[in-house]
Automatic annotation (TrEMBL):
InterPro entries the UniProt entry points to: RelE/ParE_toxin, RelE/ParE_toxin_dom_sf
Lineage: Bacteria, Bacillati, Bacillota, Clostridia, Lachnospirales
Name of the protein in question: Type II toxin-antitoxin system RelE/ParE family toxin
Keywords from the UniProt entry: Toxin-antitoxin system
Amino acid sequence: MENKKYRLQYLPLFEQDLIETVHHITYVLKNPDAALRLADDVEAAILERLSNPLAFEPFRSAKERELLYYRIYIRNYVVFYVGIDDVMEVRRLIYRKRDIDRHL
């Protein structure tokens, strides 16, 4: 069991992904309650993972990457993050049916 404390950091790109997703669900799909639940669930899943973010299987990407990416599945979406020293850096929120390697 890992005892290291991690700090949480969000990339602006993740924040934009989340805003666009919530906007789409709220205004295009006309389901503001679902949008709010998704935002709450994303936050809860990230905070839960913060205690031990590197204890999970890394994402196997078709691209060679400098850092290992990890995933959190939340309904039809995937949160991608990396570990950099004592930081869990949340990078993207991507719809599961998209070409992940292309958008990551």
